Amino acid sequence: MRRTRIAGAVLLAGAVTGLAAGPAQAQEYRYWSFWQGKGSSWAYATEGPATLRPADGAVAGFRFAVSADSAAAGKPRTAADFDAICHGTPAKDGRKRVGIVIDFGTAADAPGGERPPKPRTQCAQVAQDASAGEALAAVARPLRYDSRALLCAIAGYPEAGCAEQVEGAKEGAKEPASSAAPSSGAAADGSDAGGGGDASGAGGTDDGGPSAGLVGGIAAVVVLGAAAVWQARRRRG
């Protein structure tokens, strides 16, 4: 009987621990993500285009897609090849050249009723202290921002909306931690966007369910309780 009770407690603990270890189901969003060229490949940017100031010869990439976070975000499908992008733009004193790659995404990721333009590359020639956002604005206007200074549209795409939840996607995650969001109150092209602070949504709230830490704590209590009961009964026996 004692063994049965202890085994039941351990099985319950295992079930709770399994629940804690289960992957969270992420809510997906449709948004612009921001990338930095690393050789001919891409790395997710660690800061927004308003604050990142690329050096001459750098490549910045922007991809419109549906994803939950940076780990799942789609990269630009064009290589980060500065020579291929800027070969026709001669260097100038006091200016820098930044390759810009804009991937408008797939038809599957497009908002209803819109069709994504073809991906394009352009060479922005801007002031030496220009940000990545200013380089983008030099070649891809109009840009559109929301009140939080989140980059919503490049070259007018999409026509409306900004980092919207995708209908039918799984619930339970935060807004995307999109580096496409400027981290200051100014828009990425240097204009006032009317918002302040980080607009990435990284500080959002979850779905109100039990945290993994809480569930794991419950599992630990169950295991320790079962062990204590077994030890007590063993001493009495």
Give an overview of the whole structure.
By secondary structure, the protein is of the alpha+beta class. 24% of the residues lie in helices and 20% in strands. The chain has helices at residues 2-21, 82-86, 132-139, 212-236, and strands at residues 29-38, 41-44, 59-67, 95-103, 120-127, 144-145, 151-153, 164-165. Strands 1, 2, 3, 4, 5 and 8 form a six-stranded mixed beta sheet that branches. It has a two-stranded antiparallel sheet with strand order 6-7. Helix 1 (2-21) runs antiparallel to helix 4 (212-236). The longest helix is centred in the last third of the chain and has 25 residues, at 212-236. The two termini are 14 Å apart.
